Amino acid sequence: MKISLRSNPLYATIGVLASLFAVASFSYEGFFSLRVIANLFTDSSFLGVTALGMTVVILSKGIDLSVGSVIGFTTILVAYLVQDAGVSVPVAWGIALVVGVLFGAAMGALIVVYDLPSFLVTLGGLFFAKGMGFVISSSSIGIQNEFYDAVVGIQIQVGPGAYLGAGALAFILFFVFCLYLLKWTRFGRYVYAVGGNEDSARLMGLPVDRVKIGVYAFNGFCSAFAGILTTLYMGSGNPLTGVGMELDAIAAVVIGGTLLTGGIGGATGTLLGVLTFAVIQTILNFDGRFKPAFLRIAIAALLLGFILTQRALARGKE
Amino acid sequence: MSKAMEATVSKKSLRDNPLVWPLAGLALVVAFNLVTGPEFFSVSVRDGHLYGNLVDIFSQGARVMLLALGMTLVIATGGVDLSVGAVMAIGGALCATLVTQLGYGLYLALPLTLLMAGALGFFNGAMVVAGRIQPIIATLILMVAGRGVALLITDSDVVKIQDPAFLYLGKGYILGVPFSLWLVAAVFTVMALLIRKTALGLLIEAVGDNEHASRFSGIEAGRLKLIVYAVCGALAGMAGVLDAASVSAADPMRVGELKELDAIFAVVIGGTALTGGRFLLFGSILGAILLQALTLTLYNAGVPAAVAPVPKAIVIVGVCLLQSDRFRKQISNIIKIGGKAS
Q1: What range defines the domain where residue B117 resides?
Q2: Do B141 and A293 touch (CB under 8 A)?
Q3: I need a labelling partner for B322 at 20 to 30 A (CA). Which of A43, A133, B109, B173 fits?
């Protein structure tokens, strides 16, 4: 199915993001500034990385509900390794990433080999990772480490008072990587093919099973990476981190125009979706009248709007 | 039903009976407790009420049982409802606010709450039926928004409950048995009668098996789904009220947290096919009991509450594997090879 320029859902996302930002810029003093824009990237760095991983999963017509728990698990694992076990930071990060990849691959293998529904297996993964985080430590572990301080200290000035921190830079670099991965690598094209029509992909001789396992392994990597970014952002590890993050990530992906039916969408949309998320959050911070509860309702309303638009577009094609 | 089909049905071995798995799981939990601490099974009577772990399993499991009953119907139609935890939070928050803050009597507040929860379920159903959105995603919307709505209702506060009638829902006893259990028994009986004594069960199975075909045979699949989602919502609302009553407070953040997962778990473990079609209300009740027994056993064994999800996850995936054809074949091949070798 080819989506024409006019009905490309990306334009709806750009429209929403631009109008939200415009309205906020007129309503709140100091909103329209490079500082706010830079902070959008910093505050959404870990959600962004998670959502990019989720994009790949959803493109392959799967879903991964375990990401929030894996983020929580990673934060406490890294904090424990660095703080209590005395492991050097790069090694701790390496261990966390390997664990994430293995965990994702294991879930992918269960889904592929035994033909189990992805949402059920990853639901099991959610429980498992959540519990394992508490096995390591049931309370928050603060990270005091020179290497960490050095990494947190990295920042690039993009304007007066506007800085891109380590997390934001990692997010942007990772976005570029995902763009490349999905657009210009064999794996990326296979993901689209599998998500578009798995049977056709199989008949074409594509390694469907390996691609699907790879997708979940990649998302495990993304979750672990997001967990590491979270430890940078918070300066601590806590098994409670990331609760409900899977929903935010799915919401950002859908708002970014990736179709839940698989095969259509991409990293650019997800970047816009994540930024839309961040803009709403910033508006709520700027305007004291809104209660935090509104964030969830606003996101849900946006989600509903986008899903219905997607359905309407899809039906127009039928 | 053709003769060939009848023959295969009658040939069904014990292993193919879907109730075997939850029962086997329960037997394992019981055996474990018999070995590690038989006092687990002691039931005493205090103040005319039954006390003990066994009673706790049922009384604390009552909420998940209610959720699982509604979820069973939804899953039977080929859907799933991820929003039940959030609807629980709304139900608890709404009922508590109506009674405590606005001074409504429970006789008015409870029906209003159930109506509201049912309407939320109907909204889910409408998105699935009219919007033709996948159920996971359609109900995800309410799952995201629900907690926000609950927070708005209580103004982000925890509402303390003092109304004796309200508290009775969660803490009362009739003939020594917790009220919540009577409620579950009543709901189960009504549902089982409606489903097995009328054509309703058959219609739901038909829709879940093949919606297209069911529509051609004159079943109003859409209307049926709307009803099923509405029932699931109302039961979730009731579960939320019970939850709030049992701890004397409605906490919009805590009530029903992750309960959607427990409910799906209970349904799947009870032998209802996630792909829709075949469903077993009693299996879901057994699944909920197994879940609660497992949780309580873990607590008694000294496993911290926060770690309990790990064994839960292993059981979920294990049960799914047992239901997978390929896994069964692999296992039976291993057994066959082992048999030949010996």
Answers
A1: 49-301+308-322
A2: no
A3: A133
- Residue B40, amino acid: F
Q: Do A294 and B147 touch (CB under 8 A)?
A: no
Chain B within 8 Å of A150 (Cβ-Cβ)? no
The pLDDT tens digits for A1-41 are: 444 444 566 778 888 888 888 888 888 888 888 888 888 99
Q: Is residue B217 part of a domain?
A: yes
Chain A residues with beta carbon closer than 8 angstroms to that of B326: 113-115
- Tell me the per-residue pLDDT of B88-100, one tens digit each, with 9 for 90 and over: 999 999 999 998 8
Using the Cβ of A254 and the Cβ atoms of chain B, whether some distance falls under 8 Å is answered with yes
**Does residue B109 form part of some domain?**
yes
Domain membership of residue A4 (yes or no) is: no
Return the minimum-mean-pLDDT range out of A290-304, B15-29, B70-84. Answer: B15-29
Which segments of chain B does DSSP mark as H helices, in order?
A: 3-11, 20-36, 53-76, 84-96, 106-129, 135-153, 164-171, 179-197, 200-209, 211-216, 221-246, 259-269, 281-300, 309-323, 325-341
How many structural domains are present in chain A? 1
Region A121-132: what's the mean pLDDT? 88
Is residue B329 situated within a structural domain? no
Contact flag A254-B321 (C-beta cutoff 8 Å):
no
Q: Alpha carbon B282 to chain centroid distance?
A: 11
**Hey, are the CB atoms on B144 and A130 less than 8 Å from each other?**
no
